[in-house]
Amino acid sequence: MESTEERILACAEQLFLERGFAGTSMSDIAQALGINRPTLHYYFRTKDKMFQAVLARIVLSFVPRVYNIVSRVDRPVSERVSLVADAYIATFTAKPCLPLFVAREMQRDFSFLVRMLRQEQIDRYARKIVRALQAEMAEGKLRQVPLRSVFYTFYGLLVFPFLTRNLTEALLLDDGERFEDMLADWKTQVVAQVCALLAR
Q1: Where are the alpha helices (DSSP H) in 95-172?
Q2: CA 127/CA 67 separation, integer angstroms
Q3: In whole angstroms, how large is the CA radius of gyration of the chain?
Q4: Which pLDDT value is given to residue 181?
Q5: Pick from 70, 74, 83: which is nearest to 125 by CA?
């Protein structure tokens, strides 16, 4: 059976993803759960603490898996890029508001977002991924390119379809084609572009 804390986190995650940090109050969360604010504050004293816990829950649900894929240097880069893309697609499909949430929170208060990630020590995974890529570049296994180019290419290509899903479904799909079908085809383009950037 789901604990009260788990119920709170699941509800808070949904509201934060849909409305952002600024658009979600502790009262909103308590009301959605059907509990009073003192009960909510028993588990999470402040909105900052709750947001931090939600952020950790989201990031830790897939980022360690991404690091494990990237660090498998025995696998071809195309296979690793494909598996990382699969991990993100699965996450964004399960949490369709996540890409917009991340973009919105980075614009709202980037230093607050970074502070939350650091307090949960989640940023260590980003540093590990960067170090793993830099090591492969230094060893000549991958082309030496600025990491921002890898970041922009991968995330730009992968996230944009989710940000524009309504437009895609209204105007850009063939008759009978589903968004999920388009994503499967688009993933091959993402992998090809990142591999063209990195492969020796």
Answers
A1: 98-119, 123-138, 147-163, 165-167
A2: 10
A3: 19
A4: 94
A5: 70
What pLDDT is recorded for position 123?
A: 81
- The residues, any chain, with a CB within 8 Å of residue 188's CB and separated by 6 or more, are none
Q: Take residue 159 and report the two structure tokens written for it.
A: 């996230």
Per DSSP, 75 falls in state S
Q: Which of 17, 137, 1 is nearest to 77 (CA)?
A: 137
Residue 122, pLDDT score: 78
What pTM, to 2 d.p., does this model score?
0.91
CA-to-CA distance for 99 and 154, rounded, in angstroms?
14
Torsion of CA 122, 88, 90, 192, to 10 degrees: -160
3-state percent helix, strand, coil for the chain, nearest multiple of 5 = 75, 0, 25
- Provide the pLDDT for residue 77: 94
Q: Are 119 and 155 in contact (CB under 8 A)?
A: no
Helix (H) or strand (E) holding 139: none
On whether the CB atoms of residues 101 and 164 are closer than 8 A, the answer is: no
Q: What is the pLDDT of residue 113?
A: 87
**CA neighbor of 53 nearest in space, from 123, 120, 121:** 120
The residue written with tokens 């502070």 in the block is 115
Mean pLDDT for back-to-back runs of 10 residues, the chain (200 residues): 89 97 96 93 94 91 91 94 96 95 92 86 86 94 96 96 95 94 96 94
